[in-house]
Structure formats: C-alpha cells, structure tokens
Amino acid sequence: MSAVVVAEQESRDLWVGGRGPLLVFAFSVLLSAMTYLAATNRAMNFLEQREAVNLTVQVSLTVGVLLTLLVSADAISGERERGTLEALLLTPVSRRGIVGGKLVAALTLWLACLVVTVPYLWVLGRGVAVAGQAALLTLIVGTLVAVGLGGLGLLISALTSSNKTSLASSLLLLLVLFAPTQLPALPKTGIGEALVRVNPIGSSLHYVSQVLVNRRSWTYDLSYLLSPALLAVVVCGVLIATSPRIVKLTAGVSSE
Amino acid sequence: MSLLNLLAAAVVAVMPAASPEPAITLTSDQLTAVTGQTLSLESVLTRPDGVQSGVAHLNVTSLDGVYVDLEDWTMDVTQPVGPDTDSQLSWEVQAVNSGHFALYVVLVPKTGSLVVSPPVLLTVTARQTLDTGGALPVAVAVPAILGLAILATRLRTAR
Fold first, then answer.
1. What is the reported pTM?
2. pLDDT for A88-138, tens place per residue?
3. Is A102 contained in some domain?
C-alpha cells in the first residue's frame, strides 16, 4: 500500500511538475519527423512499409526506455542532492515501498510514450494491417525492457553518491547496450548471435524485427526475450533485497 | 548389306537403353498478383532410378530489368532434396516489386547436370499503400495537441 502512495506522489511530481509532458512532447516531435519522412518516401513499397512500422517501434522502444532510465536514474540520487530524501525517509513508508513507487512512476513515462506511438503506428501500418500487432508487441517487449533498465537506473541512483554520476552511468549503460544493435551483420555469426541474445535491448529489437518484418510467429523466436525478462526479474529481486540498505542518506551530498 | 544390318543390330543390342531424364514441373505456368501478396507454388520432381539427392533452388528473374533481391521475395530460397524426400516441394513467395517476372526451380544434384523447371510467368501490379496525406495530419496533430495541453496547464498554474 505504501508503494502505491509513493507511486501516486511521484507520478504527480513527474506529470504535474512539467518534466513528463515536456519529455513526451519532445518524443512526439521526434516520431512525427520520422513518420513524415518514412511516409513521403515514394520508393517505399509494401515490404518496406512493414519495415517503416518496425523502425517506429524500435525508435519508440529505445527512446521510451531512455526516458524511463533517465527518470529512474534521477529518482534517489536527485532527491538526495535536492535535500528531499530525508523528508521522504521520515514518512512511514518502507524503503521497498519507496523504490517500488519510484519505479512505477518512472514506468508511467514509458506508458505515455507507448500511447503517443500508437497513432504513428496506425498511419504507417494500416495498409498492411500490422498496427495492432505492432502496438501489442511494443507494449509487451517494451515494458519488459523498461522494467529491467528502469530498475537498473534506480539501483545505480541508489548506489552512486552524486546525481551527475548516476545519470552519466545510466546513459553510458544504455549506449553500450544500444551500440551493438547498429551492427548489421552481428546476428549472422555465432558470437554475434550470442551477443544479441545476452543484450536485453539487442535481443528485444531482434525479436520485434522477426515478428514484424519477417512475419515469424510470436513463439518462433521467443527465446530472444529471455534476457530482458531475466534482467527485469533479477533487477527487481535485487531492489527488493537490497533497498533497505541502499536507500539512505549520504553525508555531504545535499546541495543545501 | 546383310553384314551391315547385322552390325547395326549388334550395336543397338550392346548400347544401354536411354534412361529417362529427371524433370521438374510447376503446378502453374502463369500467375498474377499485387505487390505484397504472398503466393504458393508447388514443384514436382520426377526422379527416375539412380538420381540422387541434391538441392532445389527457387529463382526469380525480372523480365523488365528490375533488380530482384531474392531474400525479400522468399525466406526459403533452397530446400534439400534427399533420396527419401518427398518429390513435391512447396514454395512461398511474396511479390515485392511490380512488373513481369519468371519464377523457376533448379535442382542442383550432387552429381550430374542441373535440372531446370519451365518458368512460371508472374505479373505483379503495383499497389500504393503509403498515404502521405494521412501521415501529415498525424505528424502535425500529435505534437500540436500535446504542446497545447502543456501550454494550457502552464497558463492555469500561472493564474
């Protein structure tokens, strides 16, 4: 119950405070530019239309997870630096409740990104009737990745002594996970496939491509979702187990 | 004369009888489709005794000079043909480009020469699926609605 109260409060801060709407607005501008460019490409044919939908899902998933990671990386270290963590720790809410509530609040940003993505998927995918499938796929796969990486961001935020370190470490982590997905030949080699499978972002994007572009069944490459699912479970487990010890005040870090 | 006849009869008797050639036939010889449509094609391999295994390969050739990327047209370009394999093979093809194409199956045996089927002539009609007019309103409306909502919230808070 205490986690629900924290989630409500944190969500209010995120959405009424103005940070959430601005991030989602920037996200929509990015998707608009990409969708317009994809739709006005006269050379696009039927097959590439599925690829355009796939590209939209991939951008939505990656940027949506990036925003979730940024919010969660700021959640504890940011409160510590702003001097508001002490007040939060004095409330009758368990440390696990605080962490759980903050994670749920960060995930609302991912869900907002998903809702914003749906019209773009509809306009790009209506000719091939793939918009509904793409939206459902984004919801399932993206939520898995968002929970895993959002939780990892919270863990980094709790363990680092400064907010700058937390944000920089989280961004670096995302970059390290995202960079290999841009290597086109990676899944075709044995080591490359292993790297894709281990990487939660790489394996998720590969799975989405297989379903949307190559029209594989949802169960055909399901093993690719093992690493994002495992990451989500392990990170949540670590947060539950360690939050009473790691969510704490650190001497000399408050800006006040 | 009779000696010549006798020699000819001896040669014919000694020569082995010509064995029937392996052949591939396709279930149709002409198809039409629109871009994006998936077609099924069946090939039947007639193998007389002694023809071993090999690889059956589907090929798509444009008759208009359009570049054909075979990987886009079909996921399974080759299928193994073993001694016990069913001689009927199924191929799934997606019409990716518009124009006139020839589809044919080639058997590459482990030994011996290639066996080629007669071509299936495929005519693909273009279908415009992307709608620029539909994309522009969405690309403008979504950020505009979000921007106005943020502005309205800010103004209300400022009052």
1. 0.71
2. 888 888 889 999 999 999 999 999 999 999 999 988 887 667 888 999 999
3. yes
Residues of A in contact with B127 (CB under 8 A): 46
Report the domain count for chain A: 1
Angle at B126 (CA atoms; ends B95, B96), nearest 5 degrees: 25
Q: Looking at the complex, does the CB of residue B96 fall below 8 Å from at least one CB of chain A?
A: yes
* Class of domain B20-128 as given by CATH: mainly beta
* A–B interface: beta-carbon pairs under 8 A: 85
Output the DSSP codes for B75-99.
S--EEEE-TTS-SEEEEEEE--S-E
Q: What is the ipTM score, two decimals?
A: 0.82
Pairing, β B99-109 against β B120-125: antiparallel
For residue B75, the model assigns a pLDDT of 78
B152 touches chain A (CB under 8 A): no
Contact (CB<8Å) A25/B146: yes
In a domain, A256, yes or no: no
- Whether A74 maps to a domain, the answer reads yes
Q: What's the pLDDT at B58?
A: 94
3-state secondary structure of A1: coil
Note whether A128 contacts B97, CB cutoff 8 Å: no
A231 lies in some domain? yes
B97 touches A: beta carbon within 8 Å: yes
- Residue A6 sits in which domain range? 2-246
What is the pLDDT, as a whole number, of residue A180?
Answer: 84
